[in-house]
Amino acid sequence: MPMTVLNIEELLKKEHVFKQLSVAELVEHAIRNNEGVLAENGALSVETGKFTGRSPKDKFIVRDQSCETHIDWGHVNQPMESDKFEQLLQKVLRYMNEADQLYYTEAAAGADTHFTLPVRVVTEYAWHNLFAKQLFLREYPTVAAFEPFTVVYAPHFKADPLVDGTNSETFIAMSFEHRIVLIGGTEYAGEIKKSIFSVMNYLLPQQDVLSMHCSANVGHEGDVALFFGLSGTGKTTLSADDSRQLIGDDEHGWSHDGVFNIEGGCYAKTVNLSREKEPQIFDAIRFGTVLENVVLDDTRTPDYDDTSLTENTRAAYPITAIDNIAIPSRAGHPKTIVFLTADAYGVLPPISKLTKEQAMYHFLSGYTSKLAGTERGVTEPEATFSTCFGSPFLPLIPEKYATMLGELIDRHGVTVYLVNTGWTGGAYGTGSRIKLAYTRTMVNAAVNGLLADIPTEEHPVFGLHMPIEVPGVPSDLLNPVKVWADPAVYTEQATALAHKFKQNFTRFVSATDAIKSAGPRV
């Protein structure tokens, strides 16, 4: 008989809950449950059904006294009333209580023990538990900075929008009062990772720690570099450098002591993956890795070029699967920050140096381009702006994160660069994509301090400071107008993009005049 009231602690006492299974045991259970199959390289290959990516319109934060005045409420942070959440929680727990088997693991987020969040994960699928085990830190602290958060994941439970206060049958609802994340109606495991990242984006700034959607690496001299960028800009590729140790590939905190990884694993895109282009990621995919929506051929060999299921194919593996990593996943203060954008309009320079105010402007803007064909209805390049390069995961007002970044840049004398990994000589379809070899050369020069004393010229529309030379890169490439056939057409295109920046920035009403004036001049 269903219980009238059920809590998580009572649920975990049930005999059908498998607790703290090893990677091998979880793989065995997943295969036995027909959740996935072993690929030729040893990875567990799974499909996520209808949802092959996040469902942002179904994400909610419970509006209660603990967070009501802190959250930046709106279309990103949609409110759910407390009574609706508690009603939904009871429904989910009763559903989980009647399941054939459940899986439970204890993990953590935050490699700096001063800011560690214990994470508990209860799932209906064995492979979801394996995903959490690979993505989070393995050590569950008995003493931590924050009280534990519990993720309850019931992919086959469907909400009733008319009763439960959701927008559809799918929901990702987090309560800071109950310290619970409820996920249902979707099999896409990335919701686990990004829910806890959203939690950390709420908790860390209140401890004077900047939470960041970026990758990070460190050189032999202890020089740290951060790489911010949206999907498709090269964040993972450019931060993977054989001469530098990887701190983490996606989520970090920046405290008074330096930078630390929030995660214990990597969730890498695998579309068009090859050993030649990205050897670290390719070789990390082995037994224990979760392959999401990757098509297997008749011999169960992954075909990373096949996007028939989705272009958002992924691999989840522990960071220890990569050889060249920082252990533990911590380092000092950054020396260099790189903002990555894939400008399909061919307007932005391949590399430019930013003032602190420009850095805050472009951080708040979070610009890149969405290409034709990547989404239904997109027939030509579209400008996309994602605040702080991670808008869907920011519970607080964007200006909070930008102000913290500006203070840290000042305090530690950080040099910030904007790098365009997109097009040059014309827009997408006319121009050509900047060669990865040139981009690597420019990024390496920036990170290694080789551009510090090179003179710059100012972009006439965006005000960016463009180096006049970078060793190993054609000098004409560095100023985009020089590689366009018609300078007048270039100026027209640059002005059009600048207007998009200006229009987007009107929503940041609390930004200072100095930051607002650091944008394009139109």
The biggest sheet amounts to: 9 strands, mixed
Radius of gyration using CA atoms only: 23 Å
- Mean pLDDT reading: 94
Strand content: 15-25%
What is the count of helical runs?
A: 13
Low-confidence stretches: 372-379
Distance from first to last alpha carbon: 68 Å
* Strand runs, count: 28
Using the alpha-carbon principal axes, give the shape: globular
Q: Helix- and strand-based class?
A: alpha/beta
The helix fraction, in percent, is: 10-25%
Pfam families: PEPCK_ATP
EC number: 4.1.1.49
Pathway: Carbohydrate biosynthesis; gluconeogenesis
Cofactor: Mn(2+)
Explain what you see.
Pathway: Carbohydrate biosynthesis; gluconeogenesis. By secondary structure, the chain is an alpha/beta fold. The model is unreliable at 372-379 (pLDDT under 50). It is 25% helix and 24% strand. Helix 2 (23-32) runs antiparallel to helix 4 and helix 9 runs antiparallel to helix 10. The longest helix has 19 residues, at 487-505.
Primary descriptors:
single chain; alpha/beta; nine-stranded mixed sheet; eight-stranded mixed sheet; PEP_carboxykinase_C; lyase; EC 4.1.1.49
Summarize the structure.
With 522 residues, the chain is α/β, with parallel strands linked by helices.
Secondary-structure blueprint of this entry?
Blueprint: H1 8-12, E1 17-19, H2 23-32, E2 37-38, E3 44-46, E4 59-63, E5 78-81, H3 82-97, E6 102-109, E7 117-123, H4 126-135, E8 149-154, H5 161-164, E9 171-175, E10 180-184, H6 190-203, E11 210-218, E12 224-229, H7 235-239, E13 245-248, E14 251-255, E15 258-261, E16 265-269, H8 279-284, E17 290-292, E18 314-318, E19 330-331, E20 334-341, E21 351-354, H9 356-365, E22 367-370, E23 382-385, H10 398-412, E24 415-420, E25 423-424, E26 432-433, H11 436-447, E27 456-458, E28 465-467, H12 487-505, H13 513-516
Parallel strand pairs: 1-6, 3-17, 4-5, 4-9, 7-8, 8-10, 12-20, 20-24
Antiparallel strand pairs: 2-3, 6-7, 9-10, 11-12, 11-13, 11-14, 14-15, 15-19, 16-18, 17-18, 21-24, 22-23, 25-26, 27-28
Helix pairs in contact: 2-4, 9-10
Pathway: Carbohydrate biosynthesis; gluconeogenesis
Catalytic activity: oxaloacetate + ATP = phosphoenolpyruvate + ADP + CO2
Subcellular location: Cytoplasm
